[in-house]
Amino acid sequence: MKVVNNTPKFITVEGGEGVGKTTQLRLIETRLQALNIPLLVTREPGGTPLGEQLRALLLQKDGLAPTAMAELLMVFAARAQHVSTVIAPALERGEWVLCDRFTDASFAYQGFGRGISLEVIAQLAEIVHPTTKPDLTILLDVDPEIGLQRARARGELDRFEREAAPFFEAVRAGYLSQVEREPDRWRVINAGADLENVQRQLDALLNEWIAGATS
User: Fold this and answer.
1) CATH of the domain at 48
2) Residue 17 has what DSSP assignment?
3) Is residue 5 assigned to a domain?
4) Strand pairing of 186-190 and 39-43?
5) Interacting residues of 214 by C-beta distance below 8 A, sequence separation 6+
């Protein structure tokens, strides 16, 4: 595939626990690099020294857990630093950005999962990144019970992974609600299938989307 139009794109990958984001992000990265697309790969929460410190606080399983609102504000503090110092500058340089989670995760986790007003989250998003929005968001979708089984098999669980099943069911519902609201931006992968099947789905998706994005 020949890249004709290399206008920088912002691609995000979303999903609940145990959906295989790390593995599929590597595949996407490899595909884009094979096309000689300048690429920055990053993650949320994190992506900056400050963001990584906040990530550690958010995921720690010991100590007093932040309230739902404190959790949301910590995520957006990390995001503000991330967008300002990493994501926006990369796009301005002409690089594509591939990010493990972004604001859609806040709607799913803190909105649907914790019960915070979606309007409040939307207001924070408008303040923190009014002009920086994903061009493509890939949802790795799996039954929460399967995802939790995979997460447990990986080893010790972090604070989010220790939540009860209804929380993750709400998170999944939050993601699927966003897919319905913005179908042009979202693509859904059945991440409950075996690895080979998931990667075939992802390959087909990338072939179609990149061809349209770069023609």
Assistant:
1) 3.40.50.300
2) T
3) no
4) unpaired
5) 1, 3, 4, 5, 6, 35
Of 187, 170, 75, 91, which Cα lies nearest the Cα of 125? 75
pLDDT at 17: 83
Residue 1 lies in a domain: no
- Encode pLDDT of 56-100 as tens digits: 999 988 878 899 999 999 999 999 999 999 999 999 999 999 999
Domain count, the chain: 1
Residue 146 structural domain = 10-214
Angle between helices 68-82 and 49-59 (to 10 degrees): 160
Query: Has residue 4 got a pLDDT over 50?
Result: no
What is the rounded distance in angstroms from the CA atom of residue 184 to the CA atom of residue 186?
6
CA 88 to chain centre: 16
Q: Considering only residues 212 and 176, tell me which one the structure prediction assigns the higher pLDDT.
A: 176
Answer yes or no: is 81 within a domain. yes
